[in-house]
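Data availability (excerpt). The following record was deposited with the supplementary files.
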Amino acid sequence: MTESLVLSGISITHPNRVISETGHVTKGDLAEYYAGVASLILPQIANRPLSLLRCPSGIDKQCFFQRNPGRGLCAHVRTFQFKNKGKTYEYLYIEDEKGLLEIVQMGGVELHPWGAPVDAIDFPDRMIFDLDPAPEVPFEALRLAAQDLKRRLEHTGLKSIVKCTGGKGLHVTVPLAGKDKWPAVKSFAGSLADEMVTAAPDAYIATMSKAKRTGKIFIDYFRNDYTATAVADYGVRARPGAPVALPIDWRELKSIGSADQFTMKDVLRRAKSKQAKLPSLPPQILPAKRS
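Predicted structure:
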């Protein structure tokens, strides 16, 4: 690979720079991956406020989160202003593949979008449950928790998508029609999480207290709130080997061994197969009341 890689008109400098010693992943590999999955990831992140995890010297070294404008922004990385509770905030967002690749050029690795677009910032169009296991919880228990949550959502009339996060957990996501504001979505998610904790208090917890999580799965419904984000579908994680956060079919979950098993090469292969077309659900409306 040369010292300059051009993808969709964007120059990626130092493409040979190794960003993960594990797997010998380079900056050029990352750029080519995001270019290869642009049609899959952009519907999930375009025109949404983004938090970026930037690792200019590689994921094995110092990384930092950025969500506000600052020095070093490229031309296609936009800024967006909004007001909340009398205060004005300014966030980053992108519109297209050029912006996506410019994030890589800036040293960006992870992409964490909001659950609402910039033109309807008060109305989330996805509800996310982050199932975060304590270190000693086996993956089989996490699979069962995701299936438990899926069934409970179906009982309310909602269908969901499951995603391996590229870390240790799973996300269960419900596409929404963007009719309810953040407090209503968070309240609904919280009541469902509390219902699971009541049914199995030895297995689940729905509070942020780390001291009480031993042996349990934290049902993190706090992703459904203003300024909260979740790792993007098809997004690369700043972890050794650069695993990918990948949505999968519910039927495939039973054959998955860990939430960080998918590499960029795995996902690019899937993108060329029928598996790339799944999963997808139409937007849904929250039930008026929990039953």
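Summary of structural features: Residues 182-199 form the longest helix (18 residues).
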